[in-house]
Amino acid sequence: MGFLVGSSWGQIVATFETSKGNFDVNLLYQEAPLATTNFILLAGKADDIFETASGVPDLNASTHSRHAYRQVVDAETDSLKLPLNVYRFPGRYVVQQAGVVVGTVSDRQTGGFYPDLSGLDRIRLETLSSDPFQYRVTLRYPRPYVDRRFMWIRDARDNPLYKNIRVTKVEPGRRFFAGTLTNDPFEHPGYVFQDEVFRLNSADNWHGGYFNSPFILAMDSRAPNQNGSRFFITTVAEASWNGRYTPFGVVLPNAGRSVVQSIVDSPLDEDGFPEPFINISRIRISRIGAGPTAFFEGLHQQKMPGMIRESCGSIQRGHGGYQFLSEGRSGAMHSLYQSTDLLNYTGGFFAFQRQFDWEPFPFDLTSTVSAIPKMYFRSFTADILDWPATNFSLENAALEMEVTSGMDRGSLNLSFHPDGNGGSYVVNMIVTKVGLGGDPDEEVALNGNGTFIAAHEASGPYRSRIEFSDVTGPLSIDEMTLYFDSNRFENTPGFPESALVWRFGARKTSFDDGFLSYSGVFRKTR
Prior knowledge:
Blueprint: E1 11-18, E2 21-27, H1 33-42, E3 48-51, E4 70-71, E5 85-89, E6 92-97, E7 100-106, E8 123-130, E9 133-139, E10 165-166, E11 169-171, E12 175-178, E13 216-219, E14 231-234, E15 247-251, H2 257-264, E16 279-288, H3 297-301, E17 308-311, E18 313-318, E19 321-326, E20 332-339, E21 345-352, E22 361-364, H4 366-371, E23 376-383, E24 398-403, E25 409-416, E26 422-434, E27 440-458, E28 463-471, E29 479-485, E30 501-508, E31 515-524
Antiparallel strand pairs: 1-2, 1-16, 2-15, 3-4, 3-9, 5-6, 6-7, 8-9, 10-16, 11-12, 12-14, 13-14, 13-15, 17-23, 18-19, 19-22, 20-21, 20-23, 24-25, 24-31, 25-26, 26-27, 26-31, 27-28, 28-29, 29-30, 30-31
């Protein structure tokens, strides 16, 4: 699989400064926006400050939005971004960049600035001078959910976690691990977040197949959807990692791959640590081209766990065992910690509660209590905002799809049964068939209707997959992927789902009749 490391869309590059030398990683901000956001913020994302020129019209003047807020460049700024514009609406000011809504603030000042209406304090608008008028917008990147109850977790904003950390583990000749302060695989920053991969047991996994090549940066995870701060970088191709870990970066050629190789080839001491000590002093973020200006960490940060709160809980006995019942909260992440002395706690054990489920959330303690009869527990919760793909249901749904890829054209409508596991369709398309040699073979007409049986699952926060197991009629595809693009340049992330760009990709995986692959946009009408 090849990588497009230089494109007109632009790049976000992470420069690792290590005791072995420096190397550059191209971050895959479109394929894995959540992992990229987490990485950038743990690396120490400074506030972005934008200011107008002196003497612009007053905020409430109709011509104010014509005057751009341009970024104030300093040593801690990772790029020169596109300018912002501020628009006046009843009761609020809306801040946009290249047509994308970055945030909304109140039209009334509090504490000397116009505060973020979301209540998350991620954006501020303030008046620098009233004669002549000059204004400033500050994009802030607080991490309220970083868990400071544990001494090894640093304040990720003022003292970044990825600063003066060591390479904690090396698998000789294969990969090295970093991102935590110890080599404990259960160490975490107090939260976990979703994978952004397809969980297919296939070396030909066409998305998430980055591990078919070496020099990949990925999240380390001890279980599905358990990403935190620990990451690894590979030097070998290992297809079995596809679908298991979230890849979110590629080490750039001629930009330090030999340094990565030297780390992986380092001798180890008796405890398995590289010897001598390998330090990562900092990870510096820079942006190349116009594309990454459409990637806003603050917007994707809203899809991370919210403020960590201690929750009430109780222990109940029944059904042949013991349960810890944590306070029920709709759409929450629950974590449970346990101790034998009220001083040292182990955990956390994470679980997720579905949206609109308010019942007390159970943790099974049967094996723990039987092994250690004296035990103390504490539980915590953090809100998780909706992820489009995870909350997307096909029960009794109707999808209207427009084919827009290349010379392919036409429409496909899918109507699902109440159980969401099948339905009927109407197709009217012309698509290109690709032969075994990879070259376009001929155009194929798909016209008619029929029924289908399909299974649907979310494969990450921004993708879901429909796998067709039985089809009558001319629907010549085996699987379909639905993309919920909250990171696209044209979108308005953080707003209603109707504002997102919904894309799909369909393909036939058998070469018996030639490979079929097409894509386009879709909408849900029921």
